[in-house]
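Input (structure):
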């Protein structure tokens, strides 16, 4: 079987089964967004994330944007577990044909993101790449409370930050660009902005710490909103039911212009780096008010149902598990 046939999820499942005994001891299970280990007065949270430029750099993104996104992706996973990052390590694979400025711009974007989120650059490694530029970022974070796993319990409210739709539309516009139907000048500025400098919600850390006893599950949105909701369902063992979705108004407008379903666009994007939380109903309103006070879009959009199984439904309609997959 090829990796294409096995798929990314199948590959990860096999790696976890074969090497479970090596997993670092701590409260987060193998396969979660990050791992954690007890440390003085709390927990260290550990994560590495990476990607290649052909998968994660749109033609309208600069090399600084590419570096920024690498740090943001890693930071987002630390945040989802209730931590705050404080140290980063970077490994680069650069093409020798790149100009000096292009090569340095990747690290300039990394530095800009570290300064933005707060933390230190603790080292790294430089490699040559013959076909594609790649970037790996490792993060070390800290949490003073128990890290938040994936999961949920029947009756928990589904709290989602951010608004959705523009990231899936970016992929649609990219296909139009590659096929020669449009130029970069034709791509809406909102799409360029959100895909060039996505932001991890690091400021939400103090809210997650304050209400940790009420939060049963947390995942970041990196592969798609649908996939993140499925991860909650999978970890909890119960079906997630949504009453509404946080749609971006501009994304709805653009979807209608192109004859696309804004609901599908909202569910099937990726790299939004927002959060999906499963929250005890007694605390849901307090948590959303606290997050909203940080000027972060947030709302209660559904429930972990009492129906056992794996699945996500939106207003009674089954949602497919669609999201970005390697291989």
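Output (sequence):
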């Amino acid at each position: 079987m090829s990796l294409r046939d096995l798929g990314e999820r199948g590959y990860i499942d096999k790696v976890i089964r074969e090497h479970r005994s090596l997993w670092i001891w701590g409260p987060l299970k193998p396969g979660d967004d990050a791992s954690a280990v007890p440390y003085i007065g709390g927990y260290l949270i550990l994560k590495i994330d990476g990607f290649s430029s052909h998968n994660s750099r749109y033609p309208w993104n600069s090399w600084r944007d590419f570096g920024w996104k690498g740090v943001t992706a890693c930071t987002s996973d630390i945040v989802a577990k209730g931590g705050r990052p404080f140290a980063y390590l970077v490994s680069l694979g650069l093409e020798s044909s790149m100009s000096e400025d292009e090569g340095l711009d990747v690290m300039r974007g990394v530095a800009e993101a570290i300064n933005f989120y707060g933390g230190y650059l603790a080292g790294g490694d430089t490699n040559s790449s013959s076909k594609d530029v790649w970037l790996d970022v490792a993060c070390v974070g800290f949490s003073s409370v128990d890290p938040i796993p994936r999961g949920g319990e029947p009756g928990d409210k589904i709290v989602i930050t951010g608004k959705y739709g523009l990231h899936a539309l970016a992929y649609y516009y990219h296909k139009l660009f590659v096929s020669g139907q449009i130029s970069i000048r034709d791509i809406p500025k909102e799409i360029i902005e959100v895909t060039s400098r996505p932001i991890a919600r690091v400021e939400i850390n103090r809210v997650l710490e304050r209400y940790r006893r009420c939060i049963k599950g947390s995942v970041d949105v990196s592969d798609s909103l649908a996939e993140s909701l499925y991860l909650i369902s999978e970890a909890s063992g119960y079906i997630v039911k949504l009453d509404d979705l946080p749609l971006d108004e501009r994304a709805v407008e653009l979807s209608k212009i192109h004859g696309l379903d804004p609901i599908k666009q909202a569910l099937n994007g990726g790299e939004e780096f927002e959060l999906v939380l499963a929250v005890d109903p007694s605390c849901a309103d307090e948590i959303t008010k606290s997050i909203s006070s940080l000027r972060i879009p947030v709302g209660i959009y559904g429930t972990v149902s009492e129906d056992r199984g794996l699945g996500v439904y939106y207003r009674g309609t089954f949602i497919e598990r669609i999201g970005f997959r390697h291989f």
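Notes: Residues 63-80 form the longest helix (18 residues). The longest strand covers residues 42-52.
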